[in-house]
């Protein structure tokens, strides 16, 4: 009798798990299921229920390049590491750190996140004197060697391109203060108004309304490097030099993040959506759970006004293993 009861419980449990795995990742049922797990985070609607998963996959485009030992930078620990750190508060004069980008219907996360970090670091290391938005359009469209534009690109090599070829200025869609603004219109994911775009053409001149000269407007980096896969090393890098770029495997439950400290659900088929690049702004602890604070590029309607907290300590695939940054030439 006991063996029969055990078999019956397992059969019911197996059926329940199967039902969970059959749920659509953007369905109300899946969101409700997440919120019933009493995890460290809360789910909510960020995308229209009928958004094709092929479209979701087109938004993640961080390609992986080999990481050489010579490309890894180590920082001496000569300062105390605080429990909480937020780059927006540490460098309040730098407006770029506060900006949440919108990559639109293009897998340009690799370009948008890296130019954001470049912009932040130009401001930080010029003590706020240079407020320049490095053009994600210029990187997305003109960095073509081994890159796939809206189909994906390499974060480390983006910083290398900045060092060797330079990038002009350019703000978000319809902005007019830089040389090359982002040409792809912002998305409304909740209304499923987000067409998939082809990679913009590389036009080596400034926008029609700009008075800037393309070659004269370029900024350059002086270095590109990986940060050592170590929590303290990442914290020291953020503390001393500013935001960095992290690439990680996106799981289907992440699409529904709204608040709290994200960590992937256990016990379900939480398959990878693809590799995504985001900007890391700081860290902290919430309800005894350590986290990284990061900015996504799916606009301010996604997540916590475009931001998210993600568990710190290696529990999310690759998040801490491939963080990248570079220093600006001032």
TrEMBL record:
<dbReference type="InterPro" id="IPR000668">
    <property type="entry name" value="Peptidase_C1A_C"/>
</dbReference>
<dbReference type="InterPro" id="IPR038765">
    <property type="entry name" value="Papain-like_cys_pep_sf"/>
</dbReference>
<feature type="domain" description="Peptidase C1A papain C-terminal">
    <location>
        <begin position="81"/>
        <end position="327"/>
    </location>
</feature>
<dbReference type="InterPro" id="IPR000169">
    <property type="entry name" value="Pept_cys_AS"/>
</dbReference>
<keyword id="KW-0378">Hydrolase</keyword>
<dbReference type="InterPro" id="IPR025661">
    <property type="entry name" value="Pept_asp_AS"/>
</dbReference>
<dbReference type="InterPro" id="IPR012599">
    <property type="entry name" value="Propeptide_C1A"/>
</dbReference>
<keyword id="KW-0645">Protease</keyword>
<keyword id="KW-0732">Signal</keyword>
<keyword id="KW-0865">Zymogen</keyword>
<keyword id="KW-1015">Disulfide bond</keyword>
<feature type="signal peptide">
    <location>
        <begin position="1"/>
        <end position="17"/>
    </location>
</feature>
<protein>
    <submittedName>
        <fullName>Cathepsin B</fullName>
    </submittedName>
</protein>
<dbReference type="GO" id="GO:0006508">
    <property type="term" value="P:proteolysis"/>
</dbReference>
<dbReference type="GO" id="GO:0004197">
    <property type="term" value="F:cysteine-type endopeptidase activity"/>
</dbReference>
<dbReference type="InterPro" id="IPR025660">
    <property type="entry name" value="Pept_his_AS"/>
</dbReference>
<dbReference type="Pfam" id="PF00112">
    <property type="entry name" value="Peptidase_C1"/>
</dbReference>
<comment type="similarity">
    <text>Belongs to the peptidase C1 family.</text>
</comment>
<dbReference type="Pfam" id="PF08127">
    <property type="entry name" value="Propeptide_C1"/>
</dbReference>
<dbReference type="InterPro" id="IPR013128">
    <property type="entry name" value="Peptidase_C1A"/>
</dbReference>
<keyword id="KW-0788">Thiol protease</keyword>
């Amino acid at each position: 009798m006991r063996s029969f009861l055990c078999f019956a419980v397992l059969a019911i449990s197996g059926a329940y798990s199967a039902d969970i795995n059959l749920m659509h990742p953007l369905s109300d049922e899946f969101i409700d299921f997440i919120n019933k797990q009493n995890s460290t985070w809360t789910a909510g609607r960020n995308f229209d229920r009928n958004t094709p998963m092929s479209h979701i996959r087109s938004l993640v485009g961080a390609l992986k390049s080999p990481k050489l030992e010579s490309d890894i930078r180590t920082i001496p620990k000569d300062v105390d590491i605080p429990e909480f750190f937020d780059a927006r508060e540490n460098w309040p004069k730098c407006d770029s750190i506060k900006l949440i980008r919108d990559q639109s219907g293009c897998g340009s996360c690799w370009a948008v996140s890296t130019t954001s970090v470049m912009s932040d670091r130009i401001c930080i290391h010029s003590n706020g004197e240079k407020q320049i938005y490095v053009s994600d359009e210029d990187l997305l469209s003109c960095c073509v060697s081994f890159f796939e534009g809206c189909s994906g690109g390499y974060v480390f090599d983006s910083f290398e391109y900045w060092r060797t070829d330079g990038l002009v200025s350019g703000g978000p869609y319809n902005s007019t203060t830089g040389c090359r603004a982002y040409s792809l219109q912002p998305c409304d994911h909740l209304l499923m108004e987000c067409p998939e775009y082809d990679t913009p053409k590389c036009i080596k001149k400034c926008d029609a309304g700009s008075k800037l000269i393309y070659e004269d407007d370029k900024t350059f980096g002086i270095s590109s490097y990986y940060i050592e896969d170590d929590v303290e090393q990442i914290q020291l890098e953020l503390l001393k030099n500013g935001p960095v770029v992290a690439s990680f495997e996106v799981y289907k439950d992440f699409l529904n993040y709204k608040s709290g400290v994200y960590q992937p659900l256990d016990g379900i088929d939480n398959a990878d959506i693809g590799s995504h690049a985001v900007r890391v702004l700081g860290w902290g602890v919430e309800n005894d759970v350590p986290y990284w604070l990061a900015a996504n590029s799916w606009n301010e309607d996604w997540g916590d006004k475009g931001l998210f907290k993600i568990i710190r300590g290696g529990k999310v695939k690759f998040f801490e293993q491939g963080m990248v940054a570079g220093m600006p030439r001032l």
